[in-house]
Amino acid sequence: MNILLRAPIRQVLRRSFVTANRRSYVKAHRPFVPPAQLSNVQPSLTRMTRPAEEEEEDEEDDEDEVNEADMDWAGGVVKEAPTSPSFYTGRPEYYDQVILLQDAIVQARKGLTSLFLLPLPEFARKSLPAPFPMWKTQEELSTDFQSSMSRARYRRVIKLLNELNGYLTIAKAANATDVKTSIGSIVALFESGKKAASLATRKKKEVSLDAMGRSYSLGKRKTSSARVWMIPVRAEAKFPVSTILVNNLPLAEYFPIPADRERIMRPFKVAGVVGAYNVYAIVRGGGTTGQSGALSHGISKGLVIHESGLAPILKKAQLTRRDPRMVERKKTGMAKARKRYTWVKR
């Protein structure tokens, strides 16, 4: 019995639900008119033929009603549009600065592209001078932004500043005055006040030769160190022969392994001055590999002292750079730094 009545009940419920919705829709869109006033209601076609002046007056009345409603809602004060697109975020000052940097990057990219400076070839990018930016600290930016600056937000700002500073370096190298001025004014807002003092400390000390024309340099590798004295071979000698003495021993005697001797001679071969200098070195610490690497580092620095024009060649070959690689320490429970003991199940 219940099964037979289920379908009619559904139809009745559906019909009542639809009629209720229709009634609510009619109530929302058609005002109630008493039956006695139905004769006074004008048809909808007469509204389309109303003069334009009456329609403008009705629109003005509607706007006044909307303004009054806004004033009632805001407590008698009209709400103004937010001045910042990030007004409703938790940190509007921070996001305003991020948007400023992003817009500056876009404008800088467009300006350099219009001057045919972008995209820059790889060889041209490597030839640019290395920038030394020194930005404000996390605490200083927090004070400027008037909001707490987390590490992630600070990294985001620094990333944008580094990109903008790269475009500034290209503009300076190409002498693009307009782009350089516009970018420089924005970059200057985020630079630290200690930049001048920091750049002064980065300047390398000028190394000169002694009274006998010798250069002194210090080379390091791993735990080894080498003190190196170099002097040019006299050209007036009948048979000019260069000598390399390490701890008062000839090079071949102190370093019997060919790979060590090849490592020491590499700076002379790269610079093309084999046999042009006498070398006297004192090496301490480490093994033969570390000592030969330290001696090579010291010889490279000595060559730059004698001939400053060799600096770009030796720098490109990474010979004037101190190799930071060190022996990895042994770990507890392991045979060496990475080697493990043989695992035995039982």
Describe the structure.
- The protein has 346 residues and is α+β, with helices and mostly antiparallel strands.
- The protein has helices at residues 2-29, 44-48, 52-73, 92-114, 122-126, 138-145, 151-174, 177-190, 195-202, 251-254, 258-271, 288-306, 311-316, and strands at 215-221, 224-232, 244-246, 249-250, 277-284.
- The chain has a five-stranded mixed beta sheet.
- Helix 7 (151-174) runs antiparallel to helix 8 (177-190).
- The chain starts with a helix and ends in a 30-residue tail after the last helix.
- The model is unreliable at 1-6, 23-28 and 44-49 (pLDDT under 50).
Outline the secondary-structure elements.
Layout: H1 2-29, H2 44-48, H3 52-73, H4 92-114, H5 122-126, H6 138-145, H7 151-174, H8 177-190, H9 195-202, E1 215-221, E2 224-232, E3 244-246, E4 249-250, H10 251-254, H11 258-271, E5 277-284, H12 288-306, H13 311-316
Parallel strand pairs: 3-5
Antiparallel strand pairs: 1-2, 2-5, 3-4
Helix pairs in contact: 4-7, 4-8, 7-8, 11-12
The helix tally amounts to: 13
- String of helices and strands: HHHHHHHHHEEEEHHEHH
Low-confidence stretches: 1-6, 23-28, 44-49
How is the largest sheet built, in terms of strand order? 1-2-5-3-4
Total strand count, please? 5
Q: Main sheet, how many strands, which sense, barrel?
A: 5 strands, mixed
What is the terminal-to-terminal distance?
Answer: 75 Å
Please state the average pLDDT score.
Answer: 81
Briefly, what is this?
The protein is an alpha+beta fold. The protein has helices at residues 2-29, 44-48, 52-73, 92-114, 122-126, 138-145, 151-174, 177-190, 195-202, 251-254, 258-271, 288-306, 311-316, and strands at 215-221, 224-232, 244-246, 249-250, 277-284.
